[in-house]
Amino acid sequence: xxxxxxxxxxxxxxxxxxxxxxxxxxxxxxxxxxxxxxxxxxxxxxxxxxxxxxxxxxxxxxxxxxxxxxxxxxxxxxxxxxxxxxxxxxxxxxxxxxxxxxxxxxxxxxxxxxxxxxxxxxxxxxxxxxxxxxxxxxx
Length: 139
Known about the structure:
By secondary structure, this protein is mainly α.
């Protein structure tokens, strides 16, 4: 698959899952969700983040940026050093924090921690992910 089609396909999947996540979160308090809904929202965030960094990876490679060893951290660093994050008006620190949150979700067994993470997802992470999504819209 040509590189442009590769990042466009990842972007389409990223956009779909992020739209769902944002739609579920808009207008509702975290306390209004059932345990099952909370689990689903956390999974949607994880998928959104993973598709976001993979879209960035494919886009950077399409534009000739050498990422080195492929990892979310290296992709985010390359996006920052290439000026891509600045062009998107996205805070690199927020993306690194998102990566930590995504990794932490694998080991969250405490309901209160999950609620705190979901509040951060709603207030900080989804708006940053929407900036990335907006950048790729139409590319």
